Amino acid sequence: MCRHLGERRKTIDEDIEGLVEKGLNPTVKKALDVVRVVGDDAVRPGALDLHDDADTAQKLLRLVNAIADQMISHPKSVDALYQSLPPGRLEDSKRST
Question: What whole-number percentage of the chain has pLDDT above 90?
Answer without folding.
Answer: 12
